[in-house]
Write a structure and sequence with these properties.
The complex is a heterodimer of chains A (532) and B (325). Chain A has 532 residues and is an all-alpha fold. Chain A is built from 16 helices and no strands. The radius of gyration of chain A is 23 Å and the shape is globular. Chain B is built from eight helices and twelve strands. Chain B has a five-stranded mixed beta sheet, covered by helices on one side. A five-stranded mixed beta sheet of chain B has the order 4-10-9-6-7, with helices on one face. In chain B, strands 11-12 form a two-stranded antiparallel ribbon. Chain B starts with a helix and ends in a 16-residue tail after the last helix. The chains are: A mainly alpha (532), B alpha+beta (325). At the A-B interface, helix 3, helix 5, helix 10, helix 11 and helix 12 of A face helix 2, helix 3, strand 7 and strand 9 of B.
Chain lengths: 532, 325
């Protein structure tokens, strides 16, 4: 090893591959998740690529409808439950949370490792379902199609998601206890970094909402396997009951897919503008408000489902209200730049990309919360574009920003800055070219989940596929230069960004026990010195 | 009015607007679009301006910034809330218009099944994946599904309604322009979901009436079903079994055992036929058998349509400009 190599730290603490599978170190478990979800991301992305290529032709000459239907189900299930939901909490949360609060590890290290094994068991079942022939219900598993009519491997797929849910619950529980019990001396609640606040809000959702998903999928399996009438009206069930239960989980889950991203972006804004986040307390409270209100808006997925007229009115009102804290966050990030000292390093480019795309995702969310507009664009490409702006434009940008920000801490080394900046720009452009045309397609009436489509939608679909190619290139670059830098990058030193968080007060990569001595917190968060 | 409408059409890339409610929806979309562009444009300008002016090393003066301001935060929260509530009210008003059909709308039954739209015109004429309607006439569709959830979507009307098995739902519109408009199924329903499309053929009432008359209608099919399923055996005057008479039932208030009333709308008629034991009428023995699984959805819709005509003689007739049978 050369003289300028970073200290070995946790990466070299226990030799051998097997040690990784027995490790109780939160940092190593974070990396286990990083490898696993990167694999799942590539599977989901491959499915998306196949779909986009198929949609180059309105007649769907490349693949038959049944294959297309299996691809979008695969894409949804894998990307949501095996990439987006675990992305920031399980990778960055696991790695950073104990470091950020000055702790030696999470509260329950064994449970943390068990959570990864459960996650992988669920993932294995899902991969089995895909390899055995796939499922064509869509990730939403709507009944009675899923419970009675579909002839794919619905049971295995649902069982995989059911099992992976326990991983979410365990991680959420672990984080809540960790944040309550293991904060360093002096680290009061309102001195916590906003990333920790966001993990706290996320964990509450995971613990409270995930059991509902488990029960819902269990009832669906009961009907499919044993013919117990729960959702199919032919045997005495109610199909709308499924939608209520499913969205009672899945809407809060949408916030699991954005709140941690908001936390990451707050860290990045503070660090690269070198000042305290504007309205820190409001930002923390907004995270909790979004988490709480997020439980009350599930019915906005059902405006055209034939639920009660008055339910529609109430859910629309609440959906507008849940947008208020999100809007306030965007305003506060902008205000944070005011009189800052801004540098556009790669993480900051991702953070700015997040704010731009999340703003578009949020504003189009207002269209969908407006009842009469939703009636028109519900179930069309408009909604596909909207949630990709929030989940991919938002969450994936935040995830990549966070990965780049904490990469020196994770690996002890620096990545090549200019390639990284280029990839951030390519991803931003490719993303917009892919998904912006889909807003127009949706307004023009193109329904989602269509393997073939009328020729008038052809041009916009070609644009979208072209954008997907650019986006794919942008995603490919970090997959090459990050592993390269892991072995060959220049040593980073403990604090390459001059950032304020506790995680920057220890070596990069950190020793197995994180801190040589327990840090003591005496200052507010983001305590950057005023610029000269 | 025409000018504003043309503006809407221009900006929103020219999707046909062919129902009485569509221009209102487009105006709301336009308002949301303009507001969004204003907000996004302002944010973009501010961000760019700050990034350039306060780039690291720039000489811009930086008096110590405030790290929070209650006034600013309160203003942001209050401002957004007020704007959002305005949009909520606007969308809700249009939604109420969409959900509440005018009285006396012309009714057509639609049965969805994998993977077709099966249309039952009032005179019994059937058509598949094509729906003929007269323009300038409020049309109320009564929809149900025989298998899974489908969704009836006509972009040119800005209207959509999920078609749910096990219940009858309704959707109303008033087509304003003659033409042929795309109909899509917009809830995933299996292998050939993307092929479950059709057209709405909107034409003048005269042409519609001519079309309707030309299609070998099965006159009195509802009446035939009423006899075939044995309803007439009990529910007609002079029947040996004492059962409620059905003339004038639709729209009336039916007394239920244990006190109280239930309004006899389509949903009630459907439930009372399929699950009679749970929908007994006060003063009558619950003798009627369940017809769940016995009557196909298409027959059920026609039977309900027939029941609604009973006793309609006492009320003023309604129909699309004399085109109704």
């Amino acid at each position: 090893m050369s003289a300028d190599a970073p200290p070995p730290g946790y990466l070299a603490a226990e030799p051998g591959i097997l040690a990784w599978f027995r490790t109780l170190d939160h940092k190593r478990i974070g990396l286990l998740y990083l490898f696993s979800i990167t694999g799942f991301f590539m599977i989901g992305a491959a499915a998306a690529a196949c779909m986009r290529v198929a949609l180059l032709s309105p007649q769907g000459n490349l693949i038959v409808s049944d294959t297309y239907n299996r691809l979008f189900t695969l894409h949804g299930v894998v990307m949501i439950w095996f990439f987006l939901i675990p992305a920031v909490p399980n990778v960055l949360g696991n790695f950073v949370l104990p470091l950020a609060i000055g702790a030696r590890d999470v509260a329950f290290p064994r449970l943390n490792l068990a959570s990864w094994y459960i996650f992988m068991a669920g993932g294995a079942l899902v991969l089995y379902a895909i390899a055995a022939g796939g499922v064509d219900t869509g990730w939403t598993f709507y009944t009675p199609y899923s419970s009675t009519y579909s002839n794919g491997h619905v049971m295995a797929m649902a069982a995989g998601v059911f099992i992976a849910g326990f991983s979410s619950i365990f991680t959420g529980l672990n984080f809540i206890v960790t944040i309550h019990r293991l904060r360093a001396p002096g680290l009061t609640w309102f001195r916590l970094p906003l990333f920790v606040w966001s993990l706290y809000a996320t964990s509450i959702i995971l613990v409270l909402a995930t059991p509902i998903l488990a029960i819902t999928l269990f009832l669906m399996a009961l009907e499919r396997g044993l013919g117990v009438g729960v959702f199919d009206p032919k045997i005495g069930g109610d199909p709308l009951l499924f939608q209520h239960l499913f969205w009672f989980y899945s809407h809060p889950a949408v916030y699991v897919m954005i709140l941690p991203g908001m936390g990451v972006v707050s860290e990045l804004f503070a660090c690269f503008a070198r000042r305290r986040i504007f309205g820190y307390r409001v930002m923390a409270c907004a995270l909790l408000a979004i988490a709480a209100l997020g439980f009350l808006v599930w019915g906005h997925h059902m405006f055209v489902s034939s639920q009660s007229l008055y339910a529609g009115l109430v859910f629309s009102l609440l959906s507008f209200l849940v947008s208020v804290p999100s809007a306030v966050k965007v305003f506060n990030w902008t205000a944070t730049l005011h009189r800052g000292s801004i540098r556009l390093d790669t993480p900051m480019l991702y953070a700015l990309g997040f704010v731009a795309l999340f703003t578009i995702g949020g504003l189009t969310g207002l269209f969908l919360a407006s009842l009469a507009v939703d009636v028109h664009v519900h179930g069309t490409y408009f909604i596909v574009a909207h949630f990709h702006y929030v989940m991919v434009g938002g969450m994936v940008m935040a995830y990549l920003g966070g990965i780049h920000y904490w990469w020196p801490k994770i690996s002890g080394r620096l990545y090549p800055e200019w390639i990284a900046r280029s990839s951030a720009v390519i991803i931003f452009l490719g993303f917009n070219l892919t998904f912006f045309p889909q807003f127009v397609l949706g307004y023009l009436g193109m329904p989602r989940r269509y393997a073939i489509y009328p020729p008038e939608f052809h041009t916009l679909n070609v644009c979208s596929t072209a954008g997907a190619a650019v986006l794919g290139l942008g995603y490919l670059l970090p997959l090459i230069y990050l592993p390269w830098s892991f072995f060959r990058g220049a040593p980073a030193g403990p604090n390459p960004w001059d950032a304020t968080g506790l995680e920057w007060r220890t070596a990069s990569p950190p020793p197995p026990h994180n801190f040589e001595e327990t840090p003591v917190v005496t200052a507010e968060p983001y305590d950057y010195p005023p610029p000269p | 009015m025409t000018g504003r409408f043309a503006l809407t059409r221009g900006i929103l890339a020219g999707l046909e607007s062919a129902s009485s409610l569509a221009p209102g929806v487009d105006r709301l979309i336009l308002a949301l679009l303009v507001t969004s562009l204003l907000v996004a444009g302002t944010l973009l300008a501010l961000n760019l301006c700050f990034i350039v002016r306060y780039r690291r090393g720039s000489s811009a003066p930086r008096p110590p910034p405030r790290s929070s301001s209650t006034v600013v935060e309160a203003a942001w929260i209050a401002g957004t809330t007020v704007v959002f509530l305005g949009f909520f009210a606007w969308g809700a008003k249009l939604y109420l218009d969409e959900e509440r059909p005018p009285a006396g709308a012309y009714e057509i039954a639609v049965v969805a099944r994998q993977w077709m739209w099966d249309i039952h015109q009032p005179n019994g004429r059937r058509e598949f994946n094509e729906l003929h309607v007269p323009i300038g006439t409020p049309i109320r569709l009564l929809l149900t599904s025989e298998d899974v959830i489908h969704s009836f979507y006509v972009p040119a009307f800005r209207l959509k309604q999920d078609v749910v098995p096990g219940k009858t739902v309704s959707l109303w519109f008033d087509a304003t322009k003659a033409g042929t408009y795309a109909l899509y199924c917009s809830e995933f329903c299996g292998s050939k979901h993307a092929a479950m499309t059709g057209v709405i053929v909107a034409e003048t009432p005269e042409r519609y009436a001519a079309w309707l008359a030309g299609g070998a209608p099965e006159e009195g099919r509802g009446r035939q079903l009423f006899t075939r399923y044995g309803c007439a055996g009990c529910h007609e005057p002079g029947a040996t079994v004492r059962a409620p008479l059905l003339a004038g039932l639709y729209g009336s208030r039916v007394p239920v055992p244990g006190g109280g009333f239930i309004r006899a709308d389509e949903a009630y008629l459907r439930d009372a036929i399929l699950r009679a034991n749970q929908f007994a009428v006060a003063g009558y023995q619950p003798l009627m058998p369940s017809f769940q699984g016995v009557i196909p959805e298409g027959d059920l819709l026609e039977l309900i349509a027939y029941l609604k005509t009973l006793g309609a003689a006492e009320r003023p007739a309604s129909g699309p400009g004399g085109a109704a049978p």
